[in-house]
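FAQ
Q: What does a multi-component entry look like?
A: The components come first, one per line:
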Amino acid sequence: MKRIALSCVAAAIVAFTAQAAAPPSPSPADWREVDPQNLVLLDTRYGQVAIELAPEFAPVNAARFKALVRAHFYDGKTFYRVIDGFVAQGGIGEGTAATKDHPKDDATDRLWPTLKAEFDRPVGTDVTFTPLGSPDLFAPEVGHVDGFPVGRDAREGRMWIIHCPGTLAFARDDKPDTASTEFYIVIGEAPRRLDRNLTAFGRVIAGLQYIQKLERGDPDVDAGVIEDVAKQDPILRVQIAADLPAAAQPHFQVMRTESQAFDAKKDEKRNITSTFFFRKPPAILDVCLMPVAVKRSGP
Amino acid sequence: MKRIALSCVAAAIVAFTAQAAAPPSPSPADWREVDPQNLVLLDTRYGQVAIELAPEFAPVNAARFKALVRAHFYDGKTFYRVIDGFVAQGGIGEGTAATKDHPKDDATDRLWPTLKAEFDRPVGTDVTFTPLGSPDLFAPEVGHVDGFPVGRDAREGRMWIIHCPGTLAFARDDKPDTASTEFYIVIGEAPRRLDRNLTAFGRVIAGLQYIQKLERGDPDVDAGVIEDVAKQDPILRVQIAADLPAAAQPHFQVMRTESQAFDAKKDEKRNITSTFFFRKPPAILDVCLMPVAVKRSGP
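Then the predicted structure of the entire assembly, as tokens:
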């Protein structure tokens, strides 16, 4: 009885990490090194966030984001619109009440014109889609490509990155082809209605908890924009890992979602055998709840 | 063009608050005052969290939580196990590595013996279940009772509170009837596999963003327990609103989920008409993504 609290913890662990003890252990071949050219390091005051870009899903939008990063566009800007349970939106926030005294200059529009949307892409042979093997309410089929949660419509021959917690996408105006500089990261229950309606081009692979710590706006006031600029959390610095000196580059490996090792993880999560579960849950996977393991090495 | 950023915001607003401009406006009869006897005010260093208890789903467990609150059991304790994307667990954390030098005394076990589980309850006539009207992958039927997200199995004649972000439940040991003092609040994508496996007895109705700010543990180390006690965020104080002087009591109203006003909100969220949506999303509602409006008045 004296161990009840420990047992509580240990038991709850089972519920969370049933997928952690996979038989057999993944081999080196089951891991993919994240290309440092697609690895974004975003510093907040709470810690560093690592994001992998997915140019295979949105080449033009991903390239724009990298160009913005390399131009130090985001450094010193803020997360100006943060809605709990929904998204954290960052960038210049031009035209919002928060920045009404600091209108964007015309040069910004000239430098960073609006982009053609890349809401989805053709199903192709350049990447490997691995079905999740569970039904989904929003897409005909869901699964993974290179660790990204992906929806697929075989009839239409299209696929797209799903809005899960951690998904990175560009905000836009009412018209489709109007994204330019403002981005958001999903921080709440997956807002799947946004799938194929905005251009998603990356996902957070480490440090999402630091985005969760960002100061929130009031969704009922100015759409969640934090009107007191002093309260907006800054984007301290954003860098592409490849631009750092080799010795300063962190390295990330993502489990290959086309591997048998990942298949085994899915089976394990789908078919819960822990005795903690008094009632066996349905053998269902949610694509946004299926963790894709990430390892970090280096500084 | 100079308004692109504002437009971005305004457009994204639409995506988020399409449900906010309901026709017709809810009337006073569409709102239910939260019973101050079931209203818990939990102070963190980031802000106050308001929780509504659901004794109609778990009378014994909800009563225990109130008794613990009134005994000041949680005051000065911590959120000692916080896993990003999953749960924030609070209480004494006895037996964890973090508190290994402070074993629980036997008096705690005698004062707060383990409880019989209340994982679900009979479908009854004392409360009104309103179906969501959308399919669900985990339960035969989902909907709401008094604002709580609820699953129902008509064949078995049972219903239960669903694990959505904000759901409050007791942690337990491996055996079902082992909850005593440790609680958790869901902070990530709904962990539906926990439904009917733990006793859920409340939900956060305001201030979940403060729970999101809590210091996280490393899920790969000691099951997410924050080993450095100094880094654990404290539970500053927990109170039952009814125990405060009348003038100091906040008042919360929750939209009646059995009302036509709520039906209209559901229809509006299900059938998105905003021109922002280039592609009309499937007419699907997720029970954890259907907001139940809350109004606050008083101090």
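Q: Is there any commentary attached?
A: Sometimes. For this entry: Chain A touches chain B through 88 residues (CB under 8 Å).
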